[in-house]
Amino acid sequence: MMEKQTPLFKAVSAYLARDASRFHMPGHKGFPANRSGERLPFGGAERYDITEVEGADSLYEADGALRALEEAYAKLYGSKRTLLSAGGATLCIQTMLALVAKPGGRVLAGRNLHTSAVSAMALLGLTPVWIYPDGAAGCGMGGRIRPEEVEECLRGDAGVCAVYITSPDYFGVLSDVGEIARICRFYRVPLLVDNAHGAHLKFQTPSLHPIDLGADLCCDSLHKTLPVLTGGALLHIGNPRYIPAAKQKMALFGSTSPSYLILLSIDRCAAYLECGHVAEEFAAVRDRVKELEQLAVQKGFVPLTGPRDYTKLVLSVYNWGLTGAEFGARLREAGIEPEYVSGHWAVLMASPENTGGDYRRVSKFLNAWDLPSVGGEEYYPVPRLEAALSLRDAIFAPSETVPVENSEGRVAASMVCPCPPGIPVVMPGEKINRDAVNLLKTSGNSIVKVIL
Questions:
Q1: Which DSSP category does 45 fall into?
Q2: Model pTM?
Q3: What is the CA radius of gyration of the chain?
Q4: Which residues form the signal peptide (predicted)?
Q5: What is the pLDDT of residues 224-271, one digit of tens each?
Q6: Residues pairing with 399 in the sheet
Q7: Which of 197, 203, 219, 275 has the fewest CB atoms in 10 Å of its CB?
Q8: Which domains, from first to last, does the chain contain?
């Protein structure tokens, strides 16, 4: 039985079999009802919601069931060591940056990074040296980090302590991780990859997973594409020099009360990945998404260009004369809840857990599309702004919120992005110029936080 093959499930089941009186966290004590008698709507999951009791191991020491689970994932992904996270890819990103941080260190970073990386750099006193994506994937899209630009920057800056890129990005756009890894090895600079959206890329032929492509460190947000509860993630270590300090660095940022429900879902996912069917299941997902994209193109939707992950169906919004809210309303009227909708793009994320009925709804939505295309729209590139303060100094400085139109010449105290997964127009510490003001106003941003 599968229940006997996963180490953490075995350990927790053994604890439950003891029928011990729970004089430990959490306060619900495993009971499915509160004191008023109202039943909790969790299907019995609360029984398994324990803490780091005897026999269930401890996340930041991990010498029992959790260590066995980490070793199973290291084998699955071909890493030198894999660490579990119940704090999402955010915890893994914080750990990666902490492992490479040096006093006054500079990180060559793709500008399309997640906000958690910006916050971690500020806390660690790191200074980003920005590389801007090439914008070639589509209108208003971030695009890819070009290897030749990485090499040019490394050739001219011997003080860089790491290269940090995001691939795939929120829209599934893939950079050439293998070539960037080769360049980083030549310059003896570690490569860190935010692979939060690509945990499944290991299971296609050839593998596109960053560890297989030569990354020193990378994170996988399992819950984004695999059957894992929200918050389940992995930190993969490809370079053994980072193994000794990894747990200690993760403990700096992680909760001392990790969710065992999340950890158990990671445990169950290991059994799913080991069963050997995941590659063909994701191949089927990609085939279905490609079919839907072909239909969308026939209807006038503008496709993305270049290498990308085809578990995401990305539909153009900007060429229909609709707002993002209007496009999202049309999707929901068709019984489809998207991952994300903006005035430029809508993202529909698929996995093997989506049913044939799910795909048929999208096909019906596209077949019924009857709006004429109004063509493209002018897209303004993100301006290259001057850094007046470090990330850390800017984030912790006293600040105020002002209208965007009054922010020219002021220094930003926080990141300002037209939409959450896009490229930030302004980073903390950067001096806002007229081009930035105009782009923010065009993108619908009305206020900005600036330093007093």
A1: G
A2: 0.93
A3: 23
A4: none
A5: 999 999 999 999 999 999 999 999 999 999 999 999 999 999 999 999
A6: 451
A7: 275
A8: 58-263 (3.40.640.10), 280-367 (3.90.1150.150), 391-451 (3.90.100.10)
